[in-house]
């Protein structure tokens, strides 16, 4: 076995599964309470409007998001120089979804472990993949939020600053010299976190591989289309429930709630995203008997669907990387 092998123990896996189950139960409990408060008959009446075709369409649009972002991950991995083909990179990307609801989503770093086993690359060399992937998501969602704010009939007061914050973070991460400079200035002024700042500077040097305008432009387009697909799914869902707010308003609510959930620090934004989505729909005139089931359905067909895909791919990714590691990384 390679020295980079940090395979989680059985108790740790049980803990992750317990966390996943607990969060799911917490969210379902909250939504059930809201449904009970607004009336079961009205909520169930909305849910019965969804047939197999509608559910398949919602899941299909989520798959568009995952596959486009998976292709983006492959492009970044190729630019970094990883000797892996598209199926391997897609396996790592999708398998990481299983850890989406770990605190701070740090569980998604399991992708780095798989890469280390299969290629022998140390974490420090592959860490920029995580940074550029997160930055690309922030950039895409920030652009969508800003565009939605400009085109929607009504806007969310906090949408503009959130969009600016997302785009600012994306710019910092995708500008290696700026990121390294900020890390240096932080350490000089505070004297804190020297190891972390050193790692950030090293990662910034590696980020130069992604600074080509064509790479960043194509990656931004993939993320934009991917997240827009899920916004469109939310628009369709609201229309089926009889609350047609317009495409851009529905997209703005979906993206803003997703970002807001992430800012709460809760694993996967669970709880915060749902609360924000229900509140924003209510503020836009959508009745609770529509807002609650719409929120529940869109979160199941986006976040929890991704987790199911991740849990399905994870055993294969784990076994594949273990076999490669035992044979010696290329």
TrEMBL record:
The chain crosses the membrane at residues 17-38, 50-68, 138-160, 166-187, 207-228, 294-314. Pfam families: LPG_synthase_TM. The keyword Transmembrane applies. It is a multi-pass membrane protein. GO terms for cellular component: plasma membrane. The keyword Coiled coil does not apply. Keywords: Cell membrane, Membrane, Transmembrane, Transmembrane helix. It is found in: Cell membrane. This is Flippase-like domain-containing protein. It comes from Marimonas arenosa.
């Amino acid at each position: 076995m390679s020295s980079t092998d940090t395979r989680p123990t059985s108790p740790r896996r049980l803990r992750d599964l317990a966390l996943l189950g607990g969060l799911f139960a917490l969210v379902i409990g909250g939504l059930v309470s809201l449904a009970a408060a607004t009336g079961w008959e009205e909520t169930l009446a909305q849910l019965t409007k969804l047939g197999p075709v509608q559910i398949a369409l919602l899941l299909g649009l989520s798959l568009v998001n995952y596959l486009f972002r998976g292709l983006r991950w492959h492009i970044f991995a190729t630019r970094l120089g990883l000797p892996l083909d598209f199926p391997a990179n897609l396996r790592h990307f999708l398998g990481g979804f299983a850890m989406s609801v770990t605190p701070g989503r740090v569980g998604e770093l399991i992708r780095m472990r798989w890469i280390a086993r299969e290629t022998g690359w140390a974490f420090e060399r592959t860490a920029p993949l995580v940074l550029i992937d997160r930055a690309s998501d922030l950039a895409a969602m920030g652009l969508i939020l800003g565009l939605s704010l400009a085109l929607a009939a009504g806007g969310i007061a906090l949408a503009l600053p959130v969009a600016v914050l997302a785009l600012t973070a994306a710019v910092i991460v995708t500008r290696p010299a700026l990121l390294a400079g900020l890390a240096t200035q932080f350490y000089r002024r505070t004297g804190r976190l020297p190891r972390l700042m050193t790692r950030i500077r090293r990662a910034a040097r590696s980020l130069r591989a992604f600074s080509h305008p064509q790479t960043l432009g194509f990656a931004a387009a993939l993320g934009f289309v991917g997240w827009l697909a899920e916004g469109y799914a939310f628009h369709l869902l609201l229309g089926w429930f009889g609350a047609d707010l317009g495409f851009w308003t529905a997209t703005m609510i979906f993206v803003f709630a997703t970002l807001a959930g992430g800012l709460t620090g809760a694993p996967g934004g669970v709880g915060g995203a749902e609360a924000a989505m229900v509140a924003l729909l209510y503020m836009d005139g959508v009745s609770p008997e529509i807002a609650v089931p719409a929120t529940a359905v869109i979160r199941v067909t986006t976040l929890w669907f991704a987790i199911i895909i991740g849990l399905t791919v994870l055993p294969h990714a784990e076994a594949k990387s273990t076999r490669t590691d035992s044979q010696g990384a290329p």
